[in-house]
Amino acid sequence: TQKIIIDTDPGQDDAVAILLALASPELDILGITAVAGNVPLKLTEKNARKICELAGKPETKVFAGAIRPLARTLVTAEEVHGQTGLNGPVLPEPTMKLQEQYAVDFIVETLMAEEPGTVTLCPLGPLTNIALALIREPKIAKRIKKIVLMGGGFFEGGNVTPAAEFNIYVDPQAADVVFRSGVPIVMMPLDVTHKALTKAVRVKRFRDLGTRVGIATAEMLEFFERFDEQKYGSDGGPLHDPCVIAYLLKPELFSGRDCNVTVETASELTMGMTVIDWWSVTKRPKNALVMRDIDHDGFFALLVERLGRL
Ligand code: BDR
Ligand code: CA
């Protein structure tokens, strides 16, 4: 099994990613750490617990982390995810407890205690918690196996400004720390996730599972996809964050190449842009495996099969 920590700001697509991980015996989830992003921290940590309970896994450890980005004011995305961050299904208030430990301390402590090179970090939101952990204990950089993250975009452009994707835009300074850390990174940018569209026929497959998880997932996706459908006229909404977990389970679904990635932190116009040297026009070190394509049918088959186990 692969040991992972999921760092997240649920969010319907984060929720589906968490469900996919909880349904997969290949993954040992050491903890779920919440960060402020799509909605404020109070809601993201609660949403993470709601999803663990929906999956029937209340023993999962959920921690609360950073309340705001390193340097900038928090930007949220209620217009996409709704006021709760998880609009769509009616989910009961969670009864499982939030862990008392601060998420950043949990990340540091876990990486220092586990065998080096055995723990993968899976950030699905702004990179604040991960950057804070790297700053607090720089020794963890060499102990992390890899970071598989959802964020950024290149040929596809941005989704919050013309240049920037939401997760990187919300905390560009944190993203800069992560991309300079020397930890091997696998990056799922919008170029991949915009090819993982929910589509009505796919939502129906979740609903047809007939389980609580299947129906709640269909309800989450129906709420979530209306934003992209209305704004861009696309068939469904992009299932961003589950790409990260799917990569751990079936890396062959994705293709990309090793690149240098640098984050814009200076210019307001392009703040949070991921500058990806796809064509190796610089000699800057290749610090990330940047994905560009996905076998989206294979990806949805995996999702339906796994969520059907819960
Ligand atoms: C990312 O931003 C959030 O709204 C989603 O959960 C995803 O992590 C996509 O830009
Ligand atoms: Ca997210």
TrEMBL record:
<dbReference type="GO" id="GO:0045437">
    <property type="term" value="F:uridine nucleosidase activity"/>
</dbReference>
<dbReference type="GO" id="GO:0008477">
    <property type="term" value="F:purine nucleosidase activity"/>
</dbReference>
<dbReference type="Pfam" id="PF01156">
    <property type="entry name" value="IU_nuc_hydro"/>
</dbReference>
<dbReference type="InterPro" id="IPR001910">
    <property type="entry name" value="Inosine/uridine_hydrolase_dom"/>
</dbReference>
<keyword id="KW-0326">Glycosidase</keyword>
<dbReference type="GO" id="GO:0006152">
    <property type="term" value="P:purine nucleoside catabolic process"/>
</dbReference>
<dbReference type="InterPro" id="IPR015910">
    <property type="entry name" value="I/U_nuclsd_hydro_CS"/>
</dbReference>
<keyword id="KW-0378">Hydrolase</keyword>
<dbReference type="InterPro" id="IPR036452">
    <property type="entry name" value="Ribo_hydro-like"/>
</dbReference>
<dbReference type="InterPro" id="IPR023186">
    <property type="entry name" value="IUNH"/>
</dbReference>
<protein>
    <submittedName>
        <fullName>Purine nucleosidase</fullName>
    </submittedName>
</protein>
<feature type="domain" description="Inosine/uridine-preferring nucleoside hydrolase">
    <location>
        <begin position="4"/>
        <end position="300"/>
    </location>
</feature>
<dbReference type="GO" id="GO:0005829">
    <property type="term" value="C:cytosol"/>
</dbReference>
